[in-house]
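We read letters as residues; the fold follows as tokens. Both lines appear below.
***
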Amino acid sequence: MEHILEKARELGQLIAASTEFTRMNELSDQVSENPQVADLYAEYADLRDQIAAMELDGEDEAEILKLEQQADAVQDRIGRLPGMAEVNLARLTFNRLMDRINRALQAQLTGEDEFAEEAGCGSGGCAGCTGCGPAR
């Protein structure tokens, strides 16, 4: 068991040293230095907290929808800030690396071909889906 954990730690160190991970963190750090970004993130978090509390309390759906629309608008403003497109692309790139790593691990457990085409987000594949981003 200890040998497996040792290899997991080694994999974690390799991932932490990867270009994808370091680039994502560098860009995130640069953007987070912008006070406008911090303010918008705080506003977004506050709205999400209000929504969660209202849902737990069984509040009026119309009021919850109004707050959700405000949160979406703040999220849109965050996405339009300088540097956010680069951060989002870096996150996507890192997530794809992690997907490939997970696929390689899963292939070792199941004996499947890690390079075989995946069906996508469901048994029907990705036709019409925009959730995963561009094709790999």
